[in-house]
């Protein structure tokens, strides 16, 4: 065997004799690169390893162990591993200062797949025999645990031959461990030990050695250097306790004891652990503790002082009942389950008969938790509870009590939701459905609205459970609900009935169609087309049944394709009739009808079969209707109304967004053709009229139809080719810059931005952008016409948005151009407001649903790119011109994510405080709201600026220009009491004194905020306060 | 033993709750002046922390000092109940009712009657005092506030009313740090 090369030899000496830690790197590298073999290294270390000097032996062993850790484990040959393992095992007997390094070496070996079979047993045995684990330092103890964990992971079967010896050895090794980092490892070893070894006689010892940590009481240091969280430990320990049913006899009494403590976290942990253990422990083991468990759990639920504890207690109960239910299926004995459920019922029964008292609800919750556990449990509980509730319902005459009973009963029905109903196992609620429905029907005529509403809630719950409501009950339910919708005067009852009908419509469209739909449509027809507010047919329906209401109800219940196909044509007819009537009042109703159509589309377009249907009916009809009206400018026409046209556009957009590709191409083609060439025949419209929507001189009724063009062209997927794109874009640009009709110009601008956003990169786009920029610059510079400049700014803003959100390189040029306008007296403010448009999510042409090209995190990027320039601009601008910059900064801040904001914040706060001096209420409100949230998220930043902030806020709370500003200022003030005491306390008396003005504000809502804020400040530094 | 075991009335009778006040269009109009009314006072007091009348006290003549002594440690009697479905407030225990509040906006006068849950409720003075202090902090200074027990609902009605009406005794009571602490706890808003 060749000797070590000189260099390596030198390094070895340096490390061992010279105590130079840096030499280790070189040795390790030589071994890693294969320059030196491990055995060679051992050989050269030979004399040092057996030196009489303890320090030399320790150093040599350390070197060997470290090199082992640093060399790839699969490089180790079996032979080497065997030699090293024998060597290390032997060395464990050595001096205590050598031992840690030996353990470190063994740790490296334990991870090696080449370690010969059988050696792991030897290693473990010698460790258990020779090492007093708890006398070692933390890292060495961890090495021991990691060795065990490694072997358990890879060589479990071999270790199992050790049997109980391993268990005992491990118990001794971990007994007294205190370091949370180590506990994490020992818990997982303990879990495997409990599951894979015969713990037999050592069960109690093993349990004690881990259970002494329960409940985990550990708070990681603030900077958390080790990454061990309390939750890790809690879960680790819980898994050990839930590892085997042998722990049951020790664990359950312990949990019961901890449950009786006053510490919230101990209670919570006990209950969660109970839930985790119950199933593993099994019914047999839980049997003797059932009464104690039940009383402990009931106590927590009845005296609930903490929502989490209550939930945990209920979950625990569910777990226990579930465990007992398993025993039923396993052994066929239902005795213990029923016995237990009976004692739950016995405890709760009398509370269920006292709806006026507080404990009714917790009792019901306990029973529901038990019922939720399993099908048989649910059957048993419902068989007792439902008849009881029905009986008690008859006994209690007061509506308020009856309502409570109904709500509780409904909650029980909701529990039954979780169980399926099949032919072999009917849903537990089925035997009671007749009785329950009868009770619910009986209150539908009650005078108390709350009671009626609860009845409806109960029916809805029944219908939610599989096929429980069937046959005549279906018709009956539909009839009742239909009647309530039309005749009940209480808005909650109406609302809940509509919801119930909507749910029913999804499952039983035929019933709804037969029982409800016709009645609603009848009302719509009878009411006449101009009966939006008044109602002539009083005898059929109550006052609230305006057409608007019927329309909303129709929209709500149109959930199923069958019903949609029935309602949509009726609605379109209704719309046509309204338009034909051309009465003044018809306008509002036409808009409502369109909203209703839009609502139906939004809700049901997910169903692909509906899409084509919508194209054929809604798109076709509405488009023709709108264009026909547009060319007919001689008469006054309903469809000329811009707000109505916008709703039409929304409906069209909702359909187009969901179109499959093939259909998109054709519809885009025909639409563009119609708008560019005036070829309306393509859309199926037979008219000879002149349609020139892009011509600025055309009447506004025509030009504003670009709204519809935008709805179609800007809503299709990015890969759909838009014909004559350049021409279209140029015409749109012209229209947006030149049209005096504001809606037209805005619609054209948005349409243009939608096209630019999806325009594929290339020459065409570049040319268009370049020309546009020139054109806009010219307009902004030369035009004396104020309106013309306004329009140019709007176009610039929207184009910037289109480019910025797709991350186009020209985006920054456009942004610069926009910012250059900030100091312009006339349009500076408008340009700054543009930042809001750029960053807010658009709802039409540039939204995600319209398949806009949106780059991830564009907001952050935009923020980072433009903030410095804005701050500079602010600092350099003249006093009168600063406002635009502030406004843009405020908009920027509102839209970026909090993490980014917090990083950039400190230099901005003084700027923001200054912005409160401005005169724009909406800007003030958004800045104030930001301050409120910053108090929580960045208290130190706010604290630093408190001297400037508080006087400013007090001023606004008294003399803010609008109630919203005053309210926002008061909210900010109130939230500031959570800042460090030393920061805010000096202001206490001043704030309390000055808020005396705000509590006498003339607006009630301001007074409410003032009372809350002043109360908080009063409590500052006061005994019992903060 | 947990806190609950010390409460005498663990399963008190509940009354319905008034729904949230609806915001009217007038209230949203910056130019309209909203008058202070009984409902507003009622809503201010709604924020009072839940108080349960629990400790039996046979003494008919209560003084603030006695209450303070009976409240050691105070947290045991003033507790919050966080069940979102049924948080108990003074309203649900029918201690404060809107119909028993009168406001005279022009005369700058507010008068409130409250009803202890049981005739021997030892907390009556404390509740009255809390109401007083809350309104002191929440109303513009121009208002004069009167707080009484609903006639015929408490054993020592007269004595309590007298104490609540006596400005100097109220002020003196609030000088007592311990009592102020209890009152402040009652007044902490729910979070």
Q: Please tally the helical runs of chain A, counting DSSP H or I stretches of 4 or more residues.
A: 51
Shape descriptor of chain A reads: globular
String of helices and strands of chain B: HHHEEHEHHH
Main sheet properties of chain A: none
Strand content of chain A: under 5%
Greatest interface: A-B, 38 and 48 residues
By DSSP, the count of extended strands of chain B is: 3
* Overall number of strands of chain A: 0
Strand order of the largest sheet of chain B: 1-2-3
Q: Helicity level of chain B, as a percent range? A: 25-40%
Strand content of chain B: 5-15%
Helix-strand makeup class of chain B: alpha+beta
How many DSSP H or I helices of chain B? 7
Distance between the termini of chain A: 78 Å
Helix content of chain A: over 70%
Biggest sheet record of chain B: 3 strands, mixed
| Mean pLDDT reading of chain A | 85
Radius of gyration of chain A: 39 Å
Q: Structural class, from secondary structure content of chain A?
A: mainly alpha
Rg value of chain B: 17 Å
Protein name (chain A): MMS19 nucleotide excision repair protein
Family (chain A): Belongs to the MET18/MMS19 family.
Domain MMS19 C-terminal (chain A): 550-977
Keywords (chain A): Cytoplasm, Cytoskeleton, DNA damage, DNA repair, Nucleus, Repeat
Key terms for this structure?
A: 1026 residues; 51 helices; 70% helix; B: 191 residues; alpha+beta; 7 helices; 3 strands
Descriptive notes:
- The complex is a heterodimer of chains A (1026) and B (191).
- With 1026 residues, chain A is mainly alpha-helical.
- Chain A contains 51 helices and no strands.
- In chain B, strands 1-2-3 form a 3-stranded mixed beta sheet.
- Chain B is built from 7 helices and 3 strands; from the N terminus they run αααββαβααα.
- In chain B, helix 4 links the parallel strand 2 and strand 3.
- Chain B has 191 residues and is an alpha+beta fold.
- In chain B, helix 4 packs parallel to helix 5 and helix 4 packs across helix 7.
- The longest helix of chain B has 15 residues.
- The two termini of chain B are 27 Å apart.
- Chains A and B meet through helix 51 of A and helix 2, helix 4 and helix 7 of B.
């Amino acid at each position: 065997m060749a000797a070590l090369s000189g260099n390596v030899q030198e390094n070895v000496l340096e490390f061992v004799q010279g105590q130079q830690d840096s030499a280790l790197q070189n040795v390790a590298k030589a071994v890693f690169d294969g320059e030196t073999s491990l055995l060679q290294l051992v050989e050269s270390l030979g004399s040092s390893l057996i030196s009489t000097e303890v320090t030399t032996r320790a150093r040599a062993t350390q070197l060997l162990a470290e090199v082992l850790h640093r060399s790839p484990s699969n490089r180790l040959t079996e032979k080497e591993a065997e030699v090293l393992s024998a060597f290390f095992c032997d060395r464990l007997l050595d001096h205590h200062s050598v031992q840690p390094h030996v353990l470190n070496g063994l740790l490296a070996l334990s991870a090696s797949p080449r370690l010969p079979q059988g050696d792991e047993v030897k290693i473990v045995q010698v460790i258990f025999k020779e090492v007093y684990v708890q006398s070692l330092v933390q890292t060495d103890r961890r090495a021991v645990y990691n060795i065990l964990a490694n072997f358990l992971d890879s060589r479990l079967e071999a270790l199992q031959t050790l049997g109980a010896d391993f268990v005992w050895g491990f118990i001794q090794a971990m007994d007294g461990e205190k370091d949370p980092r180590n506990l994490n490892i020992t818990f997982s070893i303990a879990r495997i030990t409990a599951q894979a070894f015969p713990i037999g006689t050592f069960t109690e010892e093993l349990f004690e050695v881990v259970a002494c940590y329960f409940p985990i009481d550990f708070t990681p240091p603030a900077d958390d250097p080790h990454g061990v969280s309390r939750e890790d430990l809690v879960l680790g320990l819980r898994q050990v306790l839930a590892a085997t049913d042998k722990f049951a006899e020790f664990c359950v009494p312990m949990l019961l004891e901890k449950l009786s403590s006053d510490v919230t976290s101990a209670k919570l942990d006990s209950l969660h652990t109970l839930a985790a253990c119950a199933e593993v422990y099994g019914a047999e083991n839980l049997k003797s503790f059932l009464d104690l468990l039940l009383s402990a759990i009931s106590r927590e639920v009845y005296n609930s002082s903490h929502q989490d504890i209550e939930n945990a207690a209920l979950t625990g109960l569910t777990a226990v009942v579930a465990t007992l239910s398993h025993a039923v299926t396993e052994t066929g004995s239902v005795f213990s389950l029923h016995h237990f459920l009976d004692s739950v019922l016995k405890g709760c029964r009398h509370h269920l008969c006292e709806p006026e008292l507080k404990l009714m609800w917790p009792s019901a919750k306990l029973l529901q938790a038990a019922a939720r556990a399993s099908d048989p449990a649910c059957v048993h509980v419902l068989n007792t509870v439902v008849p009881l509730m029905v009986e008690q319902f008859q006994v209690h005459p007061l509506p308020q009590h009856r309502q409570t009973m109904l709500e509780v009963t409904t909650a029980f029905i909701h529990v039954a939701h979780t169980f399926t109903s099949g032919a072999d196992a009917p849903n537990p609620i089925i035997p009671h459905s007749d009785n329950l429905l009868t009770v619910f029907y009986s209150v539908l005529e009650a005078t108390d609205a709350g009671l009626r509403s609860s009845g409806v809630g109960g029916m809805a719950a029944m219908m939610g459970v599989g096929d429980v409501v069937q046959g005549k009950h279906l018709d009956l339910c539909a009839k009742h609900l239909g009647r309530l919708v039309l005749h009940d005067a209480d808005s909650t009852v109406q609302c809940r009935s509509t919801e119930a009908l909507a749910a029913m419509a999804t499952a039983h469209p035929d019933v709804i169609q037969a029982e409800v739909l016709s009645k609603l449509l009848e009302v719509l027809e009878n009411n006449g087309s101009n009966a939006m507010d008044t109602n002539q047919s009083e005898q059929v329906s109550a006052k609230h049944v305006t057409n608007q209401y019927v329309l909303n109800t129709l929209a709500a219940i149109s959930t199923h394709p069958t019903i949609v196909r029935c309602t949509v044509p009726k609605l379109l007819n209704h719309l046509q009739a309204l338009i034909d009537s051309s009465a003044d009042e018809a306008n509002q109703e036409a808009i409502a009808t369109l909203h209703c159509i839009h609502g139906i589309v939004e809700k049901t377009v997910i169903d692909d079969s509906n899409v084509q249907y919508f194209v054929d009916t809604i798109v076709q009809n509405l488009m023709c209707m709108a264009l026909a009206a547009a060319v007919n400018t001689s008469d006054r026409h309903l469809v000329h109304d811009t707000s109505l046209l916008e709703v039409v556009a929304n409906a069209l957009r909702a359909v187009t967004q969901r179109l499959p590709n093939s259909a998109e191409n054709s519809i885009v083609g025909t639409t563009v053709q119609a708008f560019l060439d005036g070829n309306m025949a393509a859309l199926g419209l037979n008219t000879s009229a002149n349609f020139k929507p892009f011509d600025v001189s055309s009447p506004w009724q025509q030009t504003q139809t670009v709204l519809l063009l935008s709805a179609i062209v800007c809503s299709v997927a990015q890969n759909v080719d838009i014909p004559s794109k350049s021409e279209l874009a140029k015409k749109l640009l012209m229209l947006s810059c030149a049209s005096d009709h504001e809606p037209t110009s805005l619609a054209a601008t948005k349409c243009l931005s939608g096209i630019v956003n999806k325009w594929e990169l290339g020459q065409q786009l570049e040319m268009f952008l370049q020309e546009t920029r020139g054109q806009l610059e010219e307009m902004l510079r030369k035009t004396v016409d104020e309106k013309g400049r306004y329009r140019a700014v709007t176009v610039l803003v929207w184009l910037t948005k289109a480019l910025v959100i797709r991350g186009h390189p020209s985006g920054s040029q456009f942004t610069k151009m926009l910012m250059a306008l900030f100091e312009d007296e006339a349009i500076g403010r408008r340009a700054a407001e543009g930042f809001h448009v750029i960053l807010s999510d658009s709802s039409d042409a540039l939204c995600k649903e319209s398949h806009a090209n949106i780059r991830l995190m564009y907001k952050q990027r935009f923020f980072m790119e433009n903030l410095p320039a804005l701050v500079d601009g602010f600092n350099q601008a003249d006093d009168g011109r600063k406002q635009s910059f502030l406004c843009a900064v405020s908009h920027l801040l509102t839209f970026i994510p909090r993490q980014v904001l917090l990083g950039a914040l400190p230099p901005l706060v003084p700027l923001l405080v200054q912005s409160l001096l401005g005169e724009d209420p909406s800007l003030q409100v958004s800045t104030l709201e930001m301050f409120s949230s910053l108090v929580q998220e960045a208290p130190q930043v706010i604290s630093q600026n408190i001297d400037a902030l508080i006087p400013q806020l007090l001023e606004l709370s008294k003399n803010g220009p609008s109630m919203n500003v005053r309210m926002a200022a008061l909210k900010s003030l109130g939230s500031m009491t959570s800042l460090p005491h030393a920061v805010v306390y000096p202001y206490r008396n001043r704030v309390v004194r000055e808020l005396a003005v705000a509590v006498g504000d003339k607006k009630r809502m301001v007074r409410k905020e003032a009372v809350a804020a002043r109360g908080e400040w009063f409590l500052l530094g006061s005994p019992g306060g903060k | 033993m947990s806190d609950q075991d010390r409460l005498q009335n663990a399963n008190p009778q509940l009354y319905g709750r008034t729904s949230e006040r609806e915001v009217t269009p007038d209230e949203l109009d910056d130019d309209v002046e909203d008058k202070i009314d009984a409902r507003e006072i009622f809503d201010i007091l709604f924020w009072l922390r839940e108080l349960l009348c629990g400790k039996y006290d046979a003494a008919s003549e209560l003084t603030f000092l006695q209450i303070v002594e009976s409240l050691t440690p105070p947290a045991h009697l003033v507790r919050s109940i966080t069940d979102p479905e049924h948080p108990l407030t003074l309203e649900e225990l029918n201690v404060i009712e809107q119909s028993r509040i009168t406001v005279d906006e022009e005369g700058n006068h507010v008068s409130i009657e409250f009803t202890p849950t049981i005739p021997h409720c030892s907390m009556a003075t404390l509740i009255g005092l809390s109401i007083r202090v809350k309104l002191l902090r929440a109303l513009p200074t121009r208002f004069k506030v009167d707080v009484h027990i609903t006639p015929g609902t408490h054993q020592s009605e007269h004595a309590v009313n007298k104490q609540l009406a006596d400005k100097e005794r109220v002020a003196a009571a609030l000088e007592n740090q311990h009592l102020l602490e209890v009152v402040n706890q009652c007044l902490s808003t729910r979070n």
